[in-house]
């Protein structure tokens, strides 16, 4: 006859009960209530649950998820770090940390944490996908979207002005061509100067517009998912979620 399972202490029972309530709240997408129940569970947990590989790790993971979904990214990060402290070889602990960094738009730290997760579980395809995406975005951090050509470097043109300079040169050339194409009878000193300058100014303005578009595209690429999801439908946003519960 199988032995009866050891009876749980009052603290263990309180922990399990509150944790289950948190799981139920997560299934209903009641993020604040879920975080509240997980906090209650952690307060009720016996001390040995907080030892290495203890059951508190899963509770920290779940609360991190609930806090993340509730928009409390810094607190979600803190719980992810606590989870990893208890279970350093658990890939989900590093995933929680990475997700918090990802939602804060800190792509280099997110990539590092995803990398730690893949070291724990090299076969997790989701982790590998998230890692590749974070590494790609991390390369854009602090990098100007425009490349300065060697001649432009010698002329001292900064990256922020390369498109204005390029369009300006083209505009100046077009302006000169417009002037020289005019009949000599209709030309004068004022038009010979003003036409090229006007076309140059308009061209430089167009260059500013191109620069703005390129910066916006780069910034959109670096925007955290919490920002990008605002303009997306529920189905697309839901694809970034996971079950959360342990």
Notes on the structure:
This protein has 246 residues and is mostly helical. It is built from 12 helices and no strands. Helix 2 packs antiparallel against helix 3 and helix 3 runs parallel beside helix 5. The radius of gyration is 29 Å and the shape is rod-shaped.
Based on the model shown, name its key terms:
mainly alpha; 246 residues; 12 helices
SSE order and pairing:
Elements: H1 10-27, H2 31-44, H3 56-69, H4 73-86, H5 91-103, H6 107-120, H7 125-140, H8 150-154, H9 162-181, H10 189-222, H11 225-228, H12 234-238
Helix pairs in contact: 1-2, 1-3, 2-3, 3-4, 3-5, 4-5, 5-6, 6-7, 9-10
- Give me the strand/helix succession: HHHHHHHHHHHH
Gyration radius from CA atoms, angstroms: 29 Å
> What is the number of helical segments per DSSP (H or I, 4+ residues)?
12
- Profile the largest sheet: none
- Total beta-strand segments: 0
Instruction: Using the alpha-carbon principal axes, give the shape.
Output: rod-shaped
Q: What is the arithmetic mean of pLDDT?
A: 83
How much β-strand is present in the residues? under 5%
Give the CA-CA distance, first to last residue: 30 Å
State the helicity in percent bands: 55-70%
Write a brief caption for the model.
The protein has 246 residues and is mainly α. 70% of the residues lie in helices and 0% in strands. The protein has helices spanning 10-27, 31-44, 56-69, 73-86, 91-103, 107-120, 125-140, 150-154, 162-181, 189-222, 225-228, 234-238.
């Amino acid at each position: 006859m199988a032995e009866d399972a050891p009876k749980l202490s009052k603290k263990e029972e309180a922990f399990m009960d509150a944790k289950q309530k948190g799981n139920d709240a997560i299934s209903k997408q009641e993020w604040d209530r879920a975080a509240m129940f997980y906090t209650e569970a952690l307060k009720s947990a016996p001390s040995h649950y907080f030892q290495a590989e203890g059951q508190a790790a899963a509770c920290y993971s779940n609360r991190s998820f609930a806090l993340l979904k509730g928009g409390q990214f810094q607190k979600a990060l803190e719980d992810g770090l606590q989870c990893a402290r208890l279970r350093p070889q658990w890939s989900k602990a590093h995933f929680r940390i990475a997700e918090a960094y990802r939602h804060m738009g800190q792509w280099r730290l997110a990539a590092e944490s995803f990398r730690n997760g893949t070291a724990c579980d090299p076969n997790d395809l989701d982790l590998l996908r998230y890692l590749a995406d974070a590494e790609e975005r991390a390369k854009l951090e602090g990098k100007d979207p425009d490349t300065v050509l060697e001649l432009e470097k010698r002329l001292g043109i900064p990256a922020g002005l390369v498109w204005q300079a390029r369009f300006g040169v083209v505009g100046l050339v077009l302006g000169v061509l417009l002037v020289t194409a005019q009949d000599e009878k209709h030309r004068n000193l004022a038009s010979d100067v003003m036409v090229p300058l006007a076309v140059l100014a308009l061209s430089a303005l167009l260059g500013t517009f191109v620069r703005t578009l390129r910066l916006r595209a780069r910034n959109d690429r670096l925007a955290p998912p919490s920002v990008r999801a605002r303009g997306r439908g529920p189905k697309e946003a839901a694809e970034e979620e996971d079950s959360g519960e342990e």
